[in-house]
Please model this.
Amino acid sequence: MAIHDLLDRLRRDYAALNPQVERIDALLAEAGEQVVHDHIALRTWGDPRCDIEVLVRPFVRAGYRAAGAYRFAEKRLVARHFAHDDPDLPLVFVSELVLDQFSPGLQDMVQSLLAQVSEAELAAPDLCARGRPWQVAHADVEALRRESEYAAWLAAFGWRANHLTVAVHALARLGDLAALDEFLKAHGLRLNGAGGEIKGSPAQGLEQSSTVADVVDVEFSDGTFAVPACYYEFARRWPAPTAGSSAASSRARPTRSSRAPTGSSSRDRRTAARRRRRRCGERLARLEAHAYPRAVGKESRARRERARGRQQRAAPTVSPAAPSVRDTGPEQLLVKYGVEPISDLPGETKNSTSRSSPTCSPATTDTRSRSGRSGRPRPGTSTTTGSPHLGRARCASVIRRCSSRASRAATTVVIPRSA
Ligand code: NI
Model:
């Protein structure tokens, strides 16, 4: 399946499930805007049959690369984000619930759901867009909700987009998030005001707001019930602040009032939007090539290649032969995913009420050891020599890559409540 087809299928499914999405897109189109999506957020269970690694396979095959890793300790989630060199493709955030941090009851429930999914289905390249393949009772979903809003949403809706996020910095006239929020409220849309409508700040590199999730009727094994579905999110990215330079930040910010499309045709608007994204991306890339990888053009890629060469010549920070493991957290994920260490995101602010799904941003536990399919911790498991999934040689190779990538990633993506 071509990546554009998969993304389009996810978007269409998301819009069909959440009536507000088409409405907002139509309102923005009427206002002369071309909607570009900054990222798409997917969710899954932290089970080896369907974890992040499994879910992102079609994206990785299409050229997406791992670009950031996160943990959200309070929500007991981990997340990764993936980026493509094609700036027209959205970032992909995928999170997974760290099952072994939850009660035996929740773990048993998840296993009973996964037991209903055939191996063929789990191996399908479009697993992330297959919806809910299991039967579940509403009462069980509500029992999950008492422990985790995330688990309840995933049990009720299955594998599909949890949310899409409009790239506010790519809008021509409503590029200011506060102005966009006012525009939406003026048209009767409800925004999630918990913790303030706008989360994050220019200093954090990202401002986001979101609607209150639509409540939709869903069929469960014990009847049809109304449950909160998905919210629509709006993100404005800012260049990372440089030392003592709010003025510099202001100069560098991706304003777009002077870059409104001059043509009236959709082709002109698309061309103008592409130019804006390129200009915005070139500036951002200088400051946050890691944080905004979509915007990194060929020149920046060449620079990254040169940097990679320097890193490879430098002594690795982690010896492949004797990996340094201080605890069982990030290193486990390094081994598992072959990427830079996970970062805690203290800015995670979005609350999870019954009407607003948790954020696309996830976080986690320090214990990632698993025993086979149950996903539960194996008592006394050693974590010093790799994961249960990898042989020693593969493990060493991954750690080598990790150390190189981790040191290349000079900055951590600041995403206060997204993933
Ligand atoms: Ni998000």
